[in-house]
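Morning run. Coffee first, then this:
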Amino acid sequence: MARVLLRGKESAITRQQALAARPVRLVEGPVAGTGDGGGRLSVPLRPKAWAKWLLRFPAGATKTFELDPLGLLVWESCDGKTSVLQIVRKLERRYHFSSREAEVSTVAFLRTLIKKGLIGMAPRRGRAERKRP
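And here it is:
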């Protein structure tokens, strides 16, 4: 069983369930390319009500995240349609990683994005849920 962070709480799920989940972005912001193939992601800050009052956040404040080329590939794949396993396979093909290397680095980076509140994980829907009436 794997431990996965979902909405700030850890939950036990199987490895297969974790790899079938689809990361989805919770924030949108422009990604400016960098010379090395990576990017800078700028997202608006959403401070709590008490922090706005106490810390006097300026309107339109943003936070910037530096993404290396691998991080940018993973970020762009967090579209709610691509599964974790598909992202792992992309890294394997593009960067000639072993499947273990690609899986470990992808899962670690996705956990970081979850903890920062940038992405969430959409569980894979079962066959009965996919059918529409």
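The helical segments are 15-20, 49-55, 69-77, 84-95, 99-115, 127-130. Good start to the day.
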